[in-house]
Amino acid sequence: MKKMKLLLISLVSVFLLIGMAGCSSSDKASTSATKKDPVELRFAWWGDTKRNEVYNAIADQFEQEHPNIKIKREASGWGDYWQKLSTQTAGGNAPDVFGMHASYVSDYANRNTLLKMDSYVTDKTIDQSNFPKAVVNSGKINGNLYMIAQGVTMTGFVYNPSLFDKLGVAQPAADWTWDDFAKTALALKAKGITGSADMGGGALQPQFRYFLRQNGQDLFTEDGKKLAFDKETLVKWWSYWDDLRKKGGVPTAETSTEYQNAPLEQSLFVTGKIAMQQIPANQLYLYQQQIKDGQLKMAKMPALAGGKRGEYIEGAYLSVSAKSKHPKEAAEFINFFVNSEKSLKLFKVEQGSPGSTKMADYVKPLLEPAQKDAVDFIQETLKVAKPAAYPPMGIAQIEQAYKDDYNAISFGKMSVKDAADKFMNEAKTILNQ
Predict the structure, then answer these.
(1) Residue 288: how many CB atoms within 10 A of its CB?
(2) Among residues 70, 196, 207, 247, which is most buried (max CB within 10 A)?
(3) Whether the predicted pLDDT of 1 surpasses 50
(4) For the CA atoms of the chain, what is the radius of gyration?
């Protein structure tokens, strides 16, 4: 009997061990089935030191919620960013997710280098239910969605009222003109500080585009196949800045070149070498953080006396590379960036009012005075803003030609007329016009 009991106990123990082993194996299989494979996403953006801190913090938050996804970060200044992205894209090595801008989206989309994200909106991986239709459509080219809005902004000139009052120079009026701008810049120069940065060259927009639209023209036709401005208007624009530079209202060519890629904290405006700087309104608080004496203000872009306004909607966006090996995860990251309270608590209005109205309402109580001022400026200026066609393929080469030809003027190597002739021919060649 004793032997029989021992045998039964042994058999029960064996069955229990087998059962436990079976459960353990099943649990492992279940865990293995639900565990996600590790993914690395490369994320690139343009910005200064402060923006880098914000974007790194957002990426950190995403990684905490998605432990299988690692975000590899690539930050650059504006000019270097586009040169690097162009090179990476041409080499088939673009980041998975990267900052995109209306100035360049047509070029990248028409070269089939951007992922069409419509399906990820349809399946709610990216939620645009709280994005105004106009904001959603601003991310489309030829009916396809290539970019998701991070923020909407408007351009103007930042200045310090305290400095103007101290020098006895009248502050910019709400309806000031380009003639008023020149007079203000020269009045500041007479008081010992250069009036403004030289905005004659650099990028085609926003400054030159404002001037064109005020003259009833634009950069390109709606189909993007032709220039929509004439040489005479370009000559007026470049002559305006050439004259202002020669009179000391803007810095010398050497100084402008020296500071063209300087970070915000080392810029001409922050270091007190100029009194006005053209910026997107969303950067107002970044400049305010660097200026301790006085509350900064934004002035609208100057207009032509009795002419049209030139405002158009600007913004910053996120796109995905068409060659990304992880498009679903890239879409998840974008959705987190634009729709998560954890992200918007950090982002606030870093590149304008959030694309989502829900997120815009969420961030309002979190804003600093300068950020609230920026939002007010954006909302007020949006009232007079009009749609604008996106630049075509070849915009990068056209902008480089524009920059080079204006530099030739500013360094005294070419006359305004000769430089304008050269640019118009170069641009038309690039466009096959």
Answers:
(1) 21
(2) 196
(3) no
(4) 27
